[in-house]
Structures are given as C-alpha cells and as structure tokens.
C-alpha cells in the first residue's frame, strides 16, 4: 500500500500559503479516496478524516492577511476545494462549507474576531437562510429554531443559523424596505442539538443533518447581517462565501473521468474485441467529456478571476458581470452530473454496483444539483437581472435585494 505524507515546509518558512495549502489538499486526496466508502456508510466524516482535512489549512483560506491568514483569491480557494473533492465529494463539500468562519468574521466586531482567532482552523457549519426566530431582548436575542442542511455540523466548532428578528412578538422590517430583519446567529457547536435526518442516496458522508436550539441567548455582538460588512474588498462581498462552491462538482467530475480513462487501458469491446483505446465510441465519449469539463472549468475560473479583480478595484459591475460567476457555478454542477452520467452509460452495468465509485459519484452529484445554489431559480434570477426584471434569488448573485 502506498503511504502518502503531507508535504513539509522548511523551518521558518510560511506554512500556509496558496501553494502549500493546495499541495496539502492534493496529498490528502488519495487518503480521502481510500475512506470514501466508510465516509458514505457512516454518514459523516470520521474524526481522523476531519483532522486530515483540517491539517491542509483549507479552513483558513478565507482569512484576510491582516489577521495573519493566507487570504486566497476565489480561484485559489476553488482549486483547493477541487483537489479535496477529487479525493472525496463529502470531504470537499464539508471543507467548502466549513471555511466560511473567516467570511462571517468579516461582519463581526474586533473583540469577537480576536476570540475566533484563537483557533485559525475553526470550522463553521449551518444554514444562513432565516428559518429560525430571534426575539430581541436586552443585550442580544433569544433564539429558537430548527434548521436543515447543516453540512459538517457533526464536526464543527461554530454553527450559524439565519433568523427573522422579532420585537415584542412581531417581526421587524429589514433595512432598505426588506419585509423582515434577516440576521445570522453564531453560536458554539455545543449549544446546538443535532437531529439525525440525513438519510440520502448521495453526499451521505457530509452529515448534513438538522440542528436546533430552544430559547438560547445569543449576545448582540455574535450576530450579523450581510448588509453591514466591517471591511471592504472581495472577501466582504455578499457572495464571497459562494466563490469556491463549484470546486466540488469540478473535482468529482475530474475524478470520474480519470477513473474511466484508467479503466479504458484494460478494456475491450465485447462484440468486436477492439481495445477501448481504439474504439470510436469510447474515444468520442472521452473526448466529449474532456471538452465539456474544460469549458465548464474555464468558465468558473475565468469569471472568478474577473469577479475578484472587479471587487478589489471597487468597479461597479455591469449586469452581465454581476451574473457571470453565478451562471458558471450552476453550469459546473449540471455539466459535472451530465459527464458522470454519460461515463456511467459508457462503463455499463459495472457502474451500477455500490463497489463502483461511479455509482457514488453520480449519486453525490445528483444530490449536489438539488442545492439551492445549483437550481433553476439562479438562472431565472440572472435572466431577470439582465432584463431589468425581478430576480427570485438575488442573494446568490451577489445582490443585496
């Protein structure tokens, strides 16, 4: 059995840079691949797998340099998530969710940030949409609610939950004419109860179960909304935490394509005895898959680089610029699922067994494509914004309302 070691850095050298974090993620991928069946079976990341992912530095990739972090760009973040997802989809998904700690910290006051900095590799889980209720009380809020889709909540250090703020039992209106005051609550993991609801056919290992609190006091300083970032620049944008999301489907599709290319070296067409390497049918499927994945990948990275540069420069976007990265993200999910489905058709009956990674990858991608960030309403919202209409989902486009 091959033994994989994390790359070591020289004494005194900066340990966590974009280059070293990516190298560590690539080194971790084969180890995660070996654990994929176990991760899916147990429906969560085992603690040693969490430690392996944490040691890559992925959970600090959104930490600004002023706080001592590496401050990776959106494209650099996506490369890291893509590398981890190449090893295991659930691990990549949980890494993508868990690194939001430092995005959220950009909305909090300095004393809270200093407390968070005690653990630069802290993991955060939770649903940001306002499913819970927060009743305003002196010094903070009394929070009650149950949130679904808590990816990584089984191993998180911190948990967020979106709430509608109430005063005197009545929902408060939000800023700028919003119908409700949508506010996020950040609490310690031990303050929430998990509800084991995550029994799915795909992405099972993400542990995306429900979690709940009842009448939990949350101090004002541990709450925030997305209209009031403390800083400026790309990491303070409303959709900063969405930049690296497409790394997961891209990594899974790459893993599936490499897997089938390896299979092709030993396979022959049953009817003719033609090696797969010389089969027109197989060559066409592989060529088309590479073409489509490359196009989707370049769209993701190209639009992310443009988004980062625009936000760093403070340039007001055109409508086309505003929607470009969101559309590339949705396309990455859909293209990845289509590619793996086609590869499964190519491999045939061997792909339907649970022992085949193609079976797991296809189920994982189908589940990912049901996520709100990959659904049709994002496309509708992009079209509406381009036409001057009303987006149904403005937030995933980076629009505040």
TrEMBL record:
Key word Oxidoreductase present in the record? yes
Using the record's annotation, list all stretches that form the Acyl-CoA dehydrogenase C-terminal domain. 249-375
Q: Where is the Acyl-CoA dehydrogenase/oxidase N-terminal domain?
A: 32-102
Q: Which domain of life is it from?
A: Bacteria
Q: Which UniProt keywords apply?
A: Oxidoreductase
User: Where is the signal peptide, in residue numbers?
Assistant: none
Database matches in SUPFAM superfamilies: Acyl-CoA dehydrogenase C-terminal domain-like, Acyl-CoA dehydrogenase NM domain-like
Q: Which family does it belong to?
A: Belongs to the HpaH/HsaA monooxygenase family.
Full protein name: Acyl-CoA dehydrogenase family protein
Organism equals: Streptomyces nogalater
Taxonomy of the source species: Bacteria, Bacillati, Actinomycetota, Actinomycetes, Kitasatosporales
